[in-house]
Structures are given as structure tokens and as C-alpha cells.
Design goal:
Layout (H helix, E strand, L loop, with lengths): L1 E2 H8 L3 H10 L6 E2 L5 E3 L1 H15 L4 H12 L5 H44 L2
Antiparallel strand pairs: 1-3, 2-3
Amino acid sequence: MYSIKEVEIRSGLPASTLRYYEKEGILPDVGRDEGGRRVYTEKQMDWIRFLMAMKDTGMTIEEIKAYLELNVKGEATIQERRDFLIAHKKKVEEHMAQTQHNLEKIIQKIAYYDHVVMGKSFS
């Protein structure tokens, strides 16, 4: 079991974000110790890591809720969850391709500036 402080340290997420995720229902079943303080299991730590990956790749809170609702329904939704993640993966790949394209434009512009700077410095 992990305290909220330990989860903060391990995940890099502030306690306020963890509480928000719990309030939004995307971090379910957070237990409490005898003093009423939140405690997290290893399974919840795994979910937090997955949640962070989904958020970092552009999945919205609403989409995460939809995925979690499928997850809670159990094995009957495995194909739906797989399809859900495949669709998200496609969005991430498209975003990465666009980012790569944009990076290439930036590199070209830097090369142009390098050429201009070098040209002036050797004149």
C-alpha cells in the first residue's frame, strides 16, 4: 500500500491531480487507512501509469472514463477495449507523423539560418 505522498513521488503527479482523478471517477476504489488517509495498491499504481500514458498521448478525461467503463464490465468487453486502444493508437501515430513533419520544417529553417549566418560571418 502506498500513501498519497508515495504515489506523488513515484508517479510525479501532484496530490491535487490524484484527488481530481478520483473525483472524476478515473481513479476508482481508492482505499482509506484507519486515519482516513488515502492508500493506493500496486494495481492502482499500474493503472496510474497507464492513465498517465493515455493522458500524455492526448486521451481526454471523457475518453478515459469510457475506457474504464468498458474495463469495469470485465472480459465481455475485451474486444471493445482493444478496438478502443487501436483507435487511440491510430490518433497517436497520426499526431506523431504530423509532429515529425513539423520538426522537419523547423530543421529546414534552422539550416537556412545556419547558411545565412555562416555566409555573413565568412564574407
